[in-house]
Here is the input.
Amino acid sequence: VRCLSLVAQTRQQKLLARRQPVAASSVLHFQVVNDTVQVEFADSSTSDLPNLWLRDNCQCEKCYSKSAQARIALFKHLDLNTHPVHVQENQNGSITVEWND
Here is the structure.
């Protein structure tokens, strides 16, 4: 199972927060639509996160080295036909994505 935390999305929202206050960045709702996962955050903001972007930014231990803070999996090995087979909301306000590969 390969999972994704929304760390990158949270960082982006923190940058936007400098321009306008953000109440919370936890996931309120999501839905899988075509090639994206549409996410609604607790502050009412929304993002359409493309499957390829999500897969490339996977933070699981097979794809990402926490000690090096870098991707282990090479982009050239990314399957362009990858897609989520299961997406789940977690109690901590994040989502977990299980991929077909």
Q: What stands out?
A: Helices lie at 7-17, 51-56.
